[in-house]
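Practice record 12: protein with fe (ii) ion.
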Amino acid sequence: MYVLGISCYYHDASAALLKDGVVVAAAEEERFTRKKHDISFPANAIKYCLESQNISIDKVKYVGFYEKPLLKFERVMSQHLEMFPLSFKTFLSSTPSWINEKLRVMKKIRKTLKYKGDVLFIEHHLAHAASSFLVSPFKKAAILTVDGVGEWTTTAYGIGEGKDIHLMKEIKFPHSLGLLYSTITAYLGFTVNNAEYKVMGLSPYGNMNKKTNPYYGKLKKIIDIKEDGSYKFDMSYFVYHYKDRMPSKKLCNLLGGPIRTAESELTQRHKDISAALQSVYEEALLKMLNHVYKETRCENVVIAGGCGLNSVANGKILSNTQFKNIWIQPASGDGGTSIGVVSYIYHTILGCKRNYQLKDAYLGPGFSTKEIKKFLDKNKIGYSKFKNDKDIIKTTAKLVHENHVVGWFQGGMEWGPRALGSRSILANPCNPKAQDLLNAKVKHREKFRPFAPVVCEDDALKYFECDEPTPEPTDFMLMVYQ
Ligand SMILES: [Fe+2]
């Protein structure tokens, strides 16, 4: 039985295909359209999923969508009404996309795919929860989902057992840790729903000491974090609930200046603000997780939602909570929900047994040697052919050791935002100038953006202050350690 999952129209459109409980293909639309975080209907990703199995859409028994559009529309409309007349401009600009596109998902699926079967709509945070728990190694696990916003929910926790997921508590819009992160991302002059990871990467360059970083105290004025990790915002510091931008004038005054323009210099103040934000986020996350442990008494935890990509915070979870094991899927953000949708339909709704774990991220398109050769010949690109993998590896290792930068392309494309050795840029980690070298070679790359060193698993403790044994999400570049 095939089940197809779709996520689109907000950010990171994607498609995933499940065959008898096994995820056989999954990809984000951006990889085909070359538009970063493409939100459009993932026609190319769906085409890839079906072609990978050599099937047509008639073979698909169910199609699932990653949210309930009507419920989301209700939230958007009540937001406009509550803030009227301040919200009038955004009401006018956002309504057409709802009428023409977002509320017509069913029609779009039927028409574009020529699909006649059932379409199921799964609540957004359930899709997130399923995207992690149902493909995790755990039979039972505590679940935490944290993102910008789904229909109403922005944070939820609960427990997964066998095929079932039970979300126990939630925090609703407009209070949202994901939207706090996006608001400061916007304030620092970066693109929302895109560059949050850059803010995370910038934070270690700022003052991480809560006592001496003045912005930590300032941010704590706008978010009230309770001992159980639940939180509430002072909404006067935000305008995202009725405008198409995020920080209010009051927030700009609090942080001591206007929104940074993208071209302007990143100063120590900006770095300290990102450090303060990361500290506040980690504080809320760890308090929440400690509370979830108390409520569930389960030693396993899975995380999902866009905030699950905050690998710096993830690296602190096992050492600061009583959880013993952690799992996060490589596409923890909205892109990953298409896997959640198919798993939820197959296991939780249809009751089929779980016999699969997502062990690697290589679910996207791959190319045979023959196809690659054809491409290189057609485009008159020079190449050398190696007799075996050993020779390729030897040559590459030599090049890297000699401080060359190597583009490494092999097998299926990664699922999720991280390059995990299938489409990666390799450089010598023993070269202190490697970062400058890479920045010089890769255009438009900010100096502060980090690179991840790769070591053999057995050597992890030699180089990193990491959890032991190293948790599986380290394979997906989802845990950062000193
Ligand atoms: Fe989400």
